[in-house]
Amino acid sequence: MTPSEQSLATAARPLTGTEPLFIVLNTGSGRGDAQVLQDTIRRILDEAGRRYDLMSVDDPSRLTDVARQAVKRAQDEQGVVIAAGGDGTLNAVAATVLGQGVPFGILPQGTFNYFGRTYGISQETEVALRGFLKGRIQPVQVGLLNGRPFLVNASLGLYPQLLEDREAYKQRYGRRRWVALWSGLVTLMREPRQLSLQLEFEGKARSLRSPTLVVGNNKLQLEHVGIDNEELDHNRLVAMAARPVGTLALYGLLLRGLLSRLGEAEHVISFAFDTMTVRVRGRRRVKVAMDGEISWMDTPLEFKVADDRLPLVVPTDAEYQDRS
Question: Which of 2, 19, 72, 183 is within CB 3.0–4.6 Å of 166 for a Cys-Cys bond?
Fold first, then answer.
């Protein structure tokens, strides 16, 4: 059975426009004021006459449990699960929805919104929600790292450190894109550690020393840094790594990424794969980032494409599509 056939076997039912909505809202996540977000959701859904339950989460440790409750209710009541929050929130709820035959919507609140923008879903809550109400289901590819789903990317080495430092700067200076850029410049001033990696993919083994390894699953993000993204259309993931270089060269790579020319850099390696095993010499556990969330994971690491597709609700009306 092909991935597409497996997706159909667990596909969400078609939308009727009358389904109850179970909205998992992380009140500690994203850009704006949680009360404003909730008020906007209530106003639009009340106007539309839709039945909904706003399931607010103020403790991140409860997010997965609340998402499971939402999935169970959506299964029992022929409803839809919606995640409202930053990238980590979308990831956690999507991981719970995946393979359960329940339609999935998002109200993205993250800084860059790569996942939402790829499918035309706006960061503006009112636009995104009105687009959802006139939406259709699109099956979306999901990546797995040691069995855990990721929507945009998963990484180890320097990239998780960049994300960790970026979050610290955002807590201090606010969730602005220039803050993310400045924190990256500061992080690269420190000499990055080099990882000794053993990669196994498509029947081949390759040794690599690199400060970081990033596996991408998002066409928009790959396009923005200048890496070929066409392989994502063929049920594959794209790996990117930098050869060992000094701080000045890392600044050059960052600049190329900003100019969408990273794929042209001689110090950058990229390739596509279906499944890849990564061993890290001298490390039983490594710090990884999955859609911006940092955690520790046992090695070896296995990256692959999930058999199931995520039944994402995307806007069909051009008025509500994000074209940025």
Answer: 183
Q: Both tokens of residue 230?
A: 């066409």
The token pair that represents 160 in the structure block: 């998780």
Q: Are residues 9 and 119 in the same domain?
A: yes
Answer yes or no: do 212 and 281 share one domain. yes
**Same domain (yes/no): 294, 173:** yes
Q: Verify that 152 and 295 share a domain, yes or no.
A: yes
Question: How are strands ordered across the β-sheet holding 21-26?
Answer: 52-57, 21-26, 80-85, 104-108, 310-315, 135-140
Q: How many domains does the chain have?
A: 2
Q: In terms of domains, do 134 and 162 share one?
A: no
- If asked whether residues 69 and 43 sit together in one domain, one would say yes
Whether the CB-CB separation of 268 and 238 falls below 8 Å is answered with no
What is the DSSP annotation of 15-82?
A: P-S---EEEEEETTSSSS-HHHHHHHHHHHHHHHT--EEEEEESSGGGHHHHHHHHHHHHHHHT-EEE
Query: Cα dist. 180→190, 254, 258, 295 in Å?
Result: 16, 12, 12, 20
3-state SS, 262-291, equals: HHHCCCEEEEEECEEEEEECCCCEEEEEEC
| pLDDT one-digit tens code per residue, 147-166 | 999 999 998 987 666 666 55
Residue 92 has φ and ψ, to the nearest 5°, of -65, -40
Low-confidence ranges of the chain (pLDDT < 50): 1, 3-9, 169, 178, 182, 246-265
Range of the domain at 316: 3-140+308-320
Statement to judge: residues 117 and 20 lie in one domain: yes
Same structural domain for residues 158 and 126? Answer: no
- Look at residue 322 and give its three-state secondary structure: coil
Q: What is the pLDDT of residues 215-233, one digit of tens each?
A: 999 999 898 888 899 999 9
Give the C-alpha separation, 64 to 266, whole Å: 42
End-to-end Cα distance, the chain: 36
The DSSP secondary-structure symbol of 217 reads -
